[in-house]
Amino acid sequence: MIARQFILLWYLSQVAYTIKTNITIDDSFPDPRTGNSIIYNPPDAWNSGTFCQRGPGKCTAVLDTNRLSGGTWHECTFNPVDSSSNDHPNTPSTATVQFNGTAIYVYCALALTTSSPSGNSDMSFFIDGKPVGNFVRPAPNALGYEYNFLVYSNEVLPPNVHELSIINGRAGGSKALIIIIDRIVYSYVYWP
Ligand SMILES: *[C@@H]1O[C@H](CO)[C@@H](O)[C@H](O)[C@H]1NC(C)=O
Ligand SMILES: *[C@@H]1O[C@H](CO)[C@@H](O)[C@H](O)[C@H]1NC(C)=O
């Protein structure tokens, strides 16, 4: 009986004193807590929005940087066939990051147009090497972009270091589609 009460008190103290905090890993800036950055592969398949602001014509997307975290983005286009939009035909590109937490949220900008850029989305998400979700959406065929779009979230991760991979496109899959990564947010819990 005493043991049970003790366990209950211990449990309540743990719940009462935990603090949950969100950390943003920007597409272009490291995790302020750990210094981890998002790794993009193949590196030359990705364009950085930071660079596009300086070098016109490098990026496919033309975004309102005021509506993006850090004013930056990373984009790449998947195309099953050889084209000017991608030097790696039929090769899905990946963005990978390590984080230590219990929840993860992936925010993208989505192109609404069907061409230039093709706003078809086909993303797959892996955590610790296991497939955990997809975001598939045909381009709505409108002008402009949607910002701050949550394409994946997971709030039931065991507290630990995890690796998230985002894969854009699938081999043999649908034609030219763009991914525009703005930021990844994760939550971690601590006992002050
Ligand atoms: C963390 O961010 C997510 C998504 O942006 C939000 O739903 C959640 O409430 C935030 N949690 C905290 C502790 O701020
Ligand atoms: C992960 O974060 C927790 C706090 O939530 C901390 O206690 C732990 O040491 C961290 N682990 C690593 C490997 O950094």
From TrEMBL:
Keyword Signal among UniProt keywords: yes
Alphabetical UniProt keywords: Signal
**Residues of the signal peptide:** 1-18
Could you tell me what this protein is called? Answer: Lectin
